[in-house]
Recover the amino acids of this structure.
């Protein structure tokens, strides 16, 4: 259980992959490390990969929306990709699909920012 | 009717959110729910327990939350109780996107998720005494094994 996050820099794009369970407990830890990762120089936009997220509740929606708003306020963009059916349902319910851009997989999400993986 | 019941209490600490939802899911597994139904149960337990911690107890880690789970045939009843500050206006609290704590990055979706994932959600709250959330759900009958 718990949550681990892998941050990786792909050119000017911060890629974050979440593994495990995102609830109120893990959301506060995630917020800290996520804000720190976004402070690295040279990062323009970001891709959030939720493929390995085995559980999420409304606290997860809150922390994702929080980072989305911070990025948007700085003219930066966040794309979310690789949703599991359960996580997809929560985004549908909350209406975040109308606000945040979602892509099917990580490769395509990065490509929309001009990052081409070999 | 075969009724099976369990009750447990735990400290109002966020680390117990995972414990609570996994414990309930484990008990409910006796009804042979689908993976989707199990995810729904885990999610609503997480939502109600998080509400009790953040709102009921204002993140005081030394209070207690009690969960009572009753299985009757193919139906589950979940009762999640705290003895916290209570909700002044339950109807307002249950509105989608309403949150009393926007500074904590709450999405305001907790009750909306509970109402979507369960058949019935009933909230009883008294200011200064606490909040009890009662939820019911009937599992898919068609796939139930014949007795």
């Amino acid at each position: 259980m718990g949550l681990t996050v892998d941050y990786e820099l792909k050119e000017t794009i911060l890629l974050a992959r979440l593994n495990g369970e995102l609830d109120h407990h893990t959301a506060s830890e995630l917020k800290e490390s996520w804000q720190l990762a976004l402070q690295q120089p040279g990062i323009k936009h970001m891709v959030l990969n939720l493929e390995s997220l085995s559980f999420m509740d409304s606290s997860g929606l809150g922390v994702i929306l929080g980072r989305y708003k911070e990025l948007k306020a700085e003219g930066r963009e966040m794309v979310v990709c690789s949703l599991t059916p359960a996580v997809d349902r929560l985004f549908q319910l909350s209406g975040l699909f109308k606000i945040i851009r979602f892509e099917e997989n990580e490769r395509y999400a990065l490509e929309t920012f001009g990052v081409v993986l070999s | 009717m075969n009724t099976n019941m369990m009750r447990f209490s735990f400290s109002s600490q966020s680390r117990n959110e995972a414990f609570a939802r996994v414990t309930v899911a484990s008990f409910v597994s006796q009804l042979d729910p689908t993976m989707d139904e199990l995810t729904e149960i885990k999610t609503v337990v997480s939502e109600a327990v998080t509400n009790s911690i953040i709102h009921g107890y204002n993140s005081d880690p030394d209070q207690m939350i009690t969960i009572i789970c009753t299985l009757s045939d193919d139906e589950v009843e979940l009762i999640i109780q705290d003895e916290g500050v209570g909700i002044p206006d339950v109807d307002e609290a249950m509105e989608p996107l309403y949150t009393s704590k926007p500074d904590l990055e709450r999405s305001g979706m907790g009750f909306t998720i509970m109402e979507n994932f369960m058949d019935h959600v009933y909230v009883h709250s008294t200011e200064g005494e606490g909040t009890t959330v009662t939820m019911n759900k009937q599992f898919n009958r068609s796939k139930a094994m014949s007795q």
User: Anything to note?
Assistant: Chain B touches chain A at residues 14-15, 17-18, 21-22, 36, 39, 42-43, 46-47, 50, 53-54, 104-110, 112-113, 116 (CB under 8 Å). The CA atoms of residues 25 and 39 of chain B lie 8 Å apart.
